[in-house]
């Protein structure tokens, strides 16, 4: 007999198979060359202040608005802040749709 936790994990896998995560948004795909992890999160960086903290704040704000889980937003923040300015931009493009 499965424990509640095992059953829950199985259901989560089934939900992701169907293309939706628990927020009702499309499930994030594994990192691929075809696009960002959360392609439905749109962030405009062109024509805006290029300050690193401003970019970080805009991306996190749009991720929250799109219903991305807080643990994922924190993972983005940690990865984005783990290097220099170029790393921040590359990480933003890896996680969301940047224009």
SSE layout:
Elements: H1 4-17, E1 38-43, H2 52-65, H3 70-80, H4 85-95, E2 96-98
Parallel strand pairs: 1-2
What distinguishing features does this structure have?
globular; mainly alpha
Characterization of the model:
The chain is mainly α. It has one domain (29-98). The protein contains four helices and two strands, in the order H-E-H-H-H-E. The protein has helices at 4-17, 52-65, 70-80, 85-95; strands at 38-43, 96-98. The chain has a two-stranded parallel sheet. Helix 2 packs antiparallel against helix 3 and helix 2 packs parallel to helix 4 (85-95). The termini are far apart.
N to C succession of SSEs = HEHHHE
Query: Mind telling me the C-alpha Rg?
Result: 15 Å
Tell me the domain tally. 1
Strand pairing plus helix content: what structural class? Answer: mainly alpha
Oligomer: single chain
Count of extended strands: 2
Uncertain runs are 12-18
